[in-house]
Amino acid sequence: MAYFLKELPSMSTLLSAYASISTLAMLFRTIFNEMIPKPIRNFISAKFSDIFSNFSSDFTFIIEDRWHAVGNETFRAAEVYLPTRVGHSTKRLLLGNGDTNTITAPPQPGIPVDGKLVDEFQGMRLVWTLRQEEPNKHSHRNKRHFVLSCKKNDREKVMRSYLPHVCRTAVSILNHRQKLNIYTYDQEYSMWEPTVFKHPATFETLALEPELKQFIINDLDLFVKRKEYFQCVGRAWKRGYLLYGPPGTGKTTLVAAIANYLRFNIYDLQLQGVRNDADLRRILTSTTNRSIILIEDIDCSTTSTHSRPRARPPGAKVDNDDAKEVDGMLDNKNFLDPGVTLSGLLNFIDGLWSSCGEERFIIFTTNHKEKLDPALLRPGRMDVHIYMGHCTPGCFRKLAATYLRIKDHFLFSCVEDLIQRVPITPAEVAQQLMEGGNPQVVLEALIEFLNTRENEAVKQEEVVNEKLSSVGNKTWRRILGTTIRS
Q1: Where is this region: Disordered (predicted)?
Q2: pTM score, whole prediction
Q3: Which of 30, 139, 159, 361 has the largest count of CB atoms under 10 Å?
């Protein structure tokens, strides 16, 4: 034994050998990285991985964030499911709070890039890892994918039982989610950026006529229950809403109430920033199911949604108005560089691309319905047209109950009489009621505001009539003078 110990190398010899081996390894690594082209390095690494994998008892699933040009729903399900499985085995954890209104809210867990999470299911040990690839010259988007490792013998069980369990759990979480997001598209990085959506609007606080409110609620309830019906009749499971009317009549507030009622996220799309139809398809197909795609002020978004000039027979005379319209289109940049065309927009709403996703609401808002092309308005594209008009007595009573906490008052009849004569939006009424204080004082101020507006309208009408009368008298004098001279 003493002889054996005497023959062992000393500690200094071992450290010297270790340093030499390390230096040699670093030299080989430098040569490998600097002198060998990257494609060859990747090929060699892949071959070594294949060789060593033959001796491993593990099997690996790759779940990318995109699948066949659309979002990968399996990846999204894993994103929703995995934070619920965070345990003591997780060595790294991503934390964050996107609620800008509540800085003290507890942070939500997430999976960091290169972070590992271990899950247990029916005796299987599943290891998840999130990977991210840096953008290249062909794409500005960070590509992400999950790596799911299990034993080779558990491969079929993972496919048959575990992954369906992940998807079912994710659906249950989404159906009962407390937090909603509103997304805006970032053209520079080609991705949707989320922000926590906490709009307080509900159907309880919405100032709408009771009949219209109940119609909308019934329509929403019927839509979410009819998946099998849409499949049977061969139509995409989607619904199109057009909200139109003057500014300040509550169109955006109704969208918020619909999102809160259905618990759907909102994708707010600005068509002005979309480069072309191909870009539009890529943007819209990257939205998720159970969501609302919102395009506000569609009449201002692009000239492609405006009514097109009617075709004229060959040889027909071109009048001045038509000539001005054509000249205006030629001067318009969107005509020479069309961007989003009407056909491109319709193809996603009601064409083949409309089937890329399900359980979606597409909502357009506009102040001028008459400016929209009729092709955009027909049933199947915009299924429900909702006019959001000026304040009515019913809307006023709902606003009074919300802002003043009263259901009746002796001044209500006076206010309702004025509202029926004076056009005023619910937003303007709400602004007057938000002054607070004694309800009677607030109502009296509202009556004074309405009386002032009515008097201004009467004066304006008198001025217009006076000008028309003056023009008429001059015309008649000119006609009479011509007749007398002749």
Answers
A1: 303-322
A2: 0.72
A3: 361
